[in-house]
């Protein structure tokens, strides 16, 4: 500010340069600025205001404020600035496909001996969205933890009330307590994992990895689950196929995908892992012959805690965080995850990785 004050204190320089400087400042501001005269016609505005309100209406200058934004509290704020010469702050919501929200500060100003008013529009759409996501996350976590905890407390009470001496049931009750405690443990591990990935707390060490053997390791680690379900796994990746990735993280992603492909498969279904390379990307796909996922869910299954059947996922030990973790890890690699699915036939989850040669 002191630089500008010094600049403008020289009247001659100020006359010549203040307008272009101000116009440059306005142009680069992220906040939208609208200046109106006493008759509420727009005298000046900047690019951010045009992007926010002008796209539908064309140039803003010379239009009345009411032609550009229809909002009673905004007009009231400008009226107060013009007539009562007072400042005010309001929240403005612009409806539409892409709903936007602004914090608006409106104040009286005076120029060339004319009274006018200025509105500064600060876009808070993204801040509000993040706040909503944070609240949803907290409420989801509390809900997910409460369910197993309620069950643990109920069974502990039953045991204390005498079931501890019931030789037929006491071991079974302890088994339920243990299963629920494990579920909470698993959930907390996944939450911590996701939060450390999201906050940039993990560093990838990418190198050239033999994909075929990595998939063999994934199958071996999941083998107890697989034999229990009689599901056939096929590693259709060529023995010499290599991708550029952090080996442990790639194994983690594929373990999540193969685990899901087993969990959501039919009793005697198949899971096949394939690999394709084109000039720009490597694509690793995990396909199953399970129940498939309907269109309405497909868009959302990579969201945290989103499950097509919450109760069932919980029953089979799911946390609803696996795919969110895969999505973040794929993106950390500069890649992406996608899904194709036919209801009743099966699903294919594909991890795309950029092709990088060492
Ligand atoms: P979960 O711990 O429930 O498996 P995920 O984030 O891994 O959580 O998956 C989210 C949801 O996506 C699952 O609950 C399930 O509804 C659906 N889903 C994931 N993989 C498959 C699949 N291979 N077939 C059908 N549905 C799937």
How would the blueprint of this fold be written?
Blueprint: H1 2-9, H2 11-28, E1 32-36, E2 42-45, H3 47-57, H4 65-68, H5 72-84, E3 88-94, E4 100-111, E5 114-123, H6 125-160, H7 170-198, E6 206-210, H8 211-221, H9 223-229, E7 232-235, E8 242-246, H10 247-263, E9 270-277, E10 281-288, H11 295-298, H12 310-315, H13 322-332, E11 336-342, E12 346-354
Parallel strand pairs: 7-9
Antiparallel strand pairs: 1-2, 1-5, 3-4, 4-5, 6-8, 9-10, 10-12, 11-12
Helix pairs in contact: 6-7, 7-13, 8-10, 10-13
The protein binds adenosine-5'-diphosphate.
The total beta strand count reads: 12
DSSP strand content: 15-25%
Q: First CA to last CA: what distance?
A: 51 Å
User: What structural category characterises the helix and strand content?
Assistant: alpha+beta
Tally of helical runs = 13
Task: List low-confidence stretches.
Answer: none
Bin the helical content: 40-55%
Overall pLDDT level: 89
What does the overall shape look like? elongated
Bound compounds: adenosine-5'-diphosphate
Side by side, the strands of the main sheet go: 2-1-5-4-3
Q: Biggest β-sheet, characterized?
A: 5 strands, antiparallel
H-E order: HHEEHHHEEEHHEHHEEHEEHHHEE
Radius of gyration: 30 Å
């Amino acid at each position: 500010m002191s630089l500008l004050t010094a600049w403008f204190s020289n009247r001659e320089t100020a006359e010549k340069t203040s307008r272009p400087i101000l116009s440059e400042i306005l142009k680069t501001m992220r906040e939208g600025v609208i200046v109106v005269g006493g008759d509420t016609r727009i005298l000046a505005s900047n690019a951010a205001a045009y992007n926010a309100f002008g796209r539908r209406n064309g140039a803003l200058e010379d239009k009345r404020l009411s032609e550009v934004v229809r909002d009673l509290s905004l007009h009231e704020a400008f009226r107060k600035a013009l007539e009562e010469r007072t400042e005010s702050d309001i929240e403005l919501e612009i409806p539409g496909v892409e709903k936007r929200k602004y914090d608006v500060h409106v104040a009286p100003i005076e120029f060339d001996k004319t009274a006018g008013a200025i509105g500064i529009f600060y876009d808070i759409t993204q801040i509000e969205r993040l706040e909503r996501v944070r609240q949803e996350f907290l409420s989801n976590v509390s809900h997910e933890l409460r369910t197993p905890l309620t069950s643990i407390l109920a069974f502990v009470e039953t045991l204390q009330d005498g079931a501890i001496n019931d030789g037929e049931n006491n071991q079974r009750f302890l088994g339920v307590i243990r299963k629920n405690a494990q579920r909470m443990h698993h959930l907390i591990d996944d939450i911590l994992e996701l939060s450390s990935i999201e906050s940039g707390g993990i560093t990838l060490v990418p190198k050239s990895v033999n994909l075929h053997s990595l998939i063999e390791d994934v199958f071996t680690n999941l083998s107890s689950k697989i034999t229990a379900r009689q599901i056939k796994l096929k590693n259709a990746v060529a023995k010499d196929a290599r991708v550029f990735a952090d080996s442990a993280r790639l194994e983690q992603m594929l373990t999540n995908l193969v685990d899901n492909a087993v969990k959501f498969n039919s009793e005697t279904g198949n899971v096949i892992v394939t690999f394709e390379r084109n000039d720009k990307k490597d694509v690793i796909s995990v396909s199953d012959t399970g129940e498939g996922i309907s269109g309405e869910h497909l868009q959302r299954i990579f969201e945290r805690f989103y499950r097509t059947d919450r109760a069932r996922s919980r029953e089979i030990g799911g946390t609803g965080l696996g795919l969110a973790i895969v999505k973040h890890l794929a993106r950390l690699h500069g890649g992406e995850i996608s899904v194709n699915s036919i209801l009743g036939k099966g699903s294919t989850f594909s991890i795309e990785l950029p092709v990088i040669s060492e």
